[in-house]
Amino acid sequence: MTEIVTRFAPSPTGYLHIGGARTALFNWLFARGRGGKFLLRIEDTDRERSTPEATAAILKGMDWLGLDHDGEVISQFERASRHAEVAHELLAKGAAYKCFATQDEIQAFRDAAQAEKRSTLFQSPWRDADPATHPDAPFVIRLKTPQDGETVIEDQVQGTVRIRNDQLDDMILLRSDGTPVYMLAVVVDDHDMGVTHVIRGDDHLNNAARQMGIYTAMGWPLPVYAHIPLIHGPDGKKLSKRHGALGVEEYQKMGYPAAGMRNYLNRLGWSHGDDEFFTDAQARDWFNLEGIGKAPARLDFKKLENLCGQHIAQSDDAALLHEIVAYLDATDLPALTDAQAENLQKAMYCLKERAKTLPELLEKGHFALISSPVEPDEKAAKSLDPVSRGILSSLTPHLQNASWSRDELEEVTSRFAEANGTKFGKLAGPLRAALAGRAVTPSVFDMMLVLGRDETLTRLAQASTTGEE
User: Where is the Aminoacyl-tRNA synthetase class I anticodon-binding domain (predicted)?
Assistant: First the structure.
């Protein structure tokens, strides 16, 4: 059986777009789920717009998403001589020709065609010219496209797509300065890299018809094509900056976990029954081309948050801590100290539920990241009135002698509340303020267990004396 080889081939003209990230993910899943190879090619032939910074941003975005590639990163620009070699090979076998038409002549042809209401597709007078008549002048090399019949694309997503050959021009392969065009470079690179499946956006569907002409003329096997619909905004219009974040790094900076992002991107235009939440292992096992829909997918931030919350809840504590460290680095926020990292990991069990993003989790974990004395925020400070401070002061000796288990802590505080003619609910606010400096926190018993006896008692003692002269 032939080894499956897919590729992701972005242009390094900016960040890794969310649509590009999904394309990379689909290619990665298809290859990884079948024991194949996933290759990365940087299509950097546009020298004016391609930048090393953009290439770095693409690699960083893929690294965050966990989309590892096989082998070295291929630079399309560096393979220009190989692309030119193929153009000359096509020329030698009569599948391509030298065209000496100038830009003025081409424009004159189109103007005349428009005036006569016929196709403006340029028909070069040099297509069948005797080489003996060739002038000593600059020329381009054009592919000889069949002039009748049709090109049929058997696409795994779009189905059978038929394009009449008289609607295709004799596309340029090599410019007059000898540099190859993108359309030629893509085909040569895909062939030389052994790509078996080309999974890309459906904005490339028409390109496939033209690129197939090169494959056919060279006698190369065609790859399997799968052209996936684009991603639209929630309003159904093409995704743009008005819809919010476009680059993958922005999603990392907003604190979405990579696993949740992968899950969401996978569901954006692909389905496996009614399954919404699934693991990476399930995604690799389930992903296929048949599950990709034809209609454009719509970005839905609520679904993204919901999935991310589920992934945070089910994440391994150490892996989640690793992701938080990367998030803080990406957003230039202060790094965790060793003590903070240790406390946060200890607290993960009571932080993961209901946190949809990493910033939400960090806010819930605020109590584990701060040190004494605790500075309550405005809302929490209201819970520390003189009466509440007196209650905390009275409660502290009872906790000093408690065995530090959840059951005992709950029992001690309940007995204390009952003895003082109140309910535990009345104690919760002051305890939250004392232990975390916040009004919304995890359970006070979880915080006590994470902080330990000494730190808990220290914070309660400090809170009970706050405001005293």
Answer: 333-463
> How does pLDDT run across 36-48, given as a tens digit for each residue?
999 999 999 888 8
Amino acid at 448: M
- Distance (Å) of CA 201 to CA 58, 189, 198, 328: 17, 18, 10, 33
pLDDT at 239: 77
Report which secondary-structure segment, H or E, holds 99.
strand 96-99
Q: Is the pLDDT reported for residue 209 higher than 50?
A: yes
Single out the catalytic residue among 93, 237, 241, 346: 241
Q: Residue 467: pLDDT above 70?
A: no
The answer to the question of whether 241 is labelled as a binding residue is yes
| Beta carbons within 10 angstroms of residue 20's beta carbon | 23
For residue 233, give the H/E element and its range: none
Give the pLDDT band (50/70/90) at residue 401: confident
Give the pTM.
0.91
Q: Which two tokens stand for residue 216?
A: 């056919």
> Which residues are CB-neighbours of 399 under 8 A, at least 6 positions away?
409, 412, 413, 448, 453, 456, 457, 460
Cα–Cα distance for residue pair 452/15, rounded to 1 Å: 45
Peptide bond into 138 cis (omega under 30): no
- On the question of pLDDT at 144 being above 50, the answer is yes
Instruction: Name the pairing type of β-strands 150-155 and 140-143.
Output: unpaired
Whether the Cβ atoms of residue 73 and residue 24 lie closer than 8 Å to each other: no
Lowest mean pLDDT among 81-85, 254-258, 421-425: 421-425
Give the residue among 371, 258, 379, 275 at the shortest CA–CA distance from 320: 258
Q: Which helix (DSSP H) or strand (DSSP E) does residue 97 occupy?
A: strand 96-99
Angstrom CA distances, 441 to 52, 310, 365, 469, stand at: 44, 19, 8, 29
96-99, strands of its sheet edge to edge: 96-99, 140-143, 172-174
**pLDDT attached to residue 469:** 41
Domain 78-228 homologous superfamily, CATH:
HUPs (3.40.50.620)
241 is a catalytic site residue: yes
Radius of gyration of the chain (CA): 32
Residue type, 380: A
Which H helix or E strand runs over 3? none
Kindly tell me the burial class for residue 33, based on how many C-beta atoms sit within 10 Å of its own C-beta (0-12, 13-18, 19 or more). Answer: middle
The token pair at 465 is: 């004396």
Bridge partners of 161, per DSSP, are: 153
pLDDT at residue 185 greater than cutoff 60: yes
Whose CA is closest to 262, among 250, 237, 279? 279
CATH annotation of 378-465 = 1.10.10.350
Q: List pLDDT tens digits, range 381-399.
A: 999 999 999 999 999 999 9
